[in-house]
Every structure is written in C-alpha cells, then in structure tokens.
Amino acid sequence: MFSTLGTPILFAALLAASVPVSLATTQSDPARESRQSFSVPLKLDEVIDLIKNTNKDPAQLSSTLTQRGVDFDLDARAEKKLRKAGADDDMLYGIWQITPNGKAHMKALLTTPSGVELQVASSEALAFQDIQNESEPDHRLRMVGEFEEKFPNSPLRPYALHRMACIHFHLGRFQEAGMKWEELVRRFEDDVNLPFGIYMLGEMALRQGEYGKAISFFSQIAEKHDLRMDSQFKIIWCLANQKQDETTVARSDQFLMFFDTVNYLRQNPAL
Prior knowledge:
Elements: H1 6-15, H2 30-37, H3 44-53, H4 58-68, H5 76-85, H6 89-97, H7 100-109, H8 122-133, H9 137-150, H10 157-170, H11 174-187, H12 194-207, H13 211-220, H14 228-241, H15 245-267
C-alpha cells in the first residue's frame, strides 16, 4: 500500500523549509501558526497516532509525513510500536528514509569517493547498494545489467560499468571486461574510476602479448595518478618483452631513482 511513499517522502522532507518567526508583534496569527506547525518534525507518538487516525487514508498519511518529517530513528523499539499501530514494511521503509539516520545513510550512498554528492533518486542509490552487497558474481552481474536497463541515465552508471568490468575480469571473461572498461573510458572521461579502467585495459593487453598497446594505456597514467608506479613498472615489463634493451635499462634506472625518492620522502615527511 505504501510502496510509493519512500522517494516522495524523502525529497519533500529535504525541501521543506521552516517558516521564520517575526518578533515584531505579539498578535496571534492562526495562518502563521499553522504554517509553523508543519515545520516541526513529528515525534514517535505523533506518528503512531497519525497511522491510527489515517488508517483508511494513505494519501493523508503520506502528505503529513512529507510535510513534517520525523525526529526519531527507527530502532527495534520504534519499529515494534509502529507495527502495532498498523505500519507495514513499505510504510516503515518510507518512514525510515526521513529519520535522521535514514537521511544520513541516503546522503552517504549518494556521495562518491571523491566527495561529490550525486543527484539521484533514492531508488537508484539503494539498487546500487544492493549490487555492492551481493557476493555471488553471476548474480551481481545480472543485477548490474538490470540497473543499467532501469536507470540508463543515472549518474551511477559509470560505477555500474566499472563494477561489471571487474566482475567479468575476476571470472576470466577478459573480452567482456575490456568492452566495459573501453565504454567507461569512452563515455565518462571525468569519472573517478577512469584511471583504474585505463590501467586494467593495459593489463589485459599485456597479458595478451600486445605490448605496444599496453604501453599506450599505461603511459596515460604513468605520471599523474596513484597507479603511476605500477604503470611505470608495467611499461618496463613491456619494453623488456619487446627486446628494447637500452630503453628498458634507462626506464629501469629512472624507476629506481623515483622509487628511492618516494621512499625517502615518506620516511622524512617534514621535508
């Protein structure tokens, strides 16, 4: 009955603004007081009474929860009381999304590793979390495919592509993995997963003996990313396999000098 409450309740609650109180007059203003009442979050007992009083009018319940929000978290005690009042699983989910912990959880889901807060629906964030929590590779792969079909324009799509590529790679399906990382590189040039995708394309080319192609991938991130040392080492590996002895030795010397410098700076952080 309340399966559609979650998203509208969450976003309307986040958009609801409190009404400023004027101190210029002490005269009663019923309209203003009515507006102010809608800015005060509901307590647990108030939500329980609301569920009981609106048992046959889910629209009214949704409207009130949307306008007011709640000031409690959905722990075991609160859930027990709400269920006793008549709340079902869908209603509890909708209420959870507007609790303090629920809103914080949703915000965390929508924040990328680089700290950017994505503007996506809660349904997208929760669907992606389900993918991350799934441990069985083939099942997770199917879930990623369903996510791509259901949310083709989602800001989380590059993360889904990267996840699908990783799954294919770990299952030994290198061609499929390469196709997904190539799509990531082609379509999402600013994505946080892009450097790792480029690195893995180089890794797969190396494993297939395509050393020139591998070098071109590793070179893209050899100077400017956390994977630069790994990339430089893989370039040396490729050059050695190409029998470019002089270049291999020169790059190895550069690598060792860089490696020693990095270790020295790590041991002397005050410098």
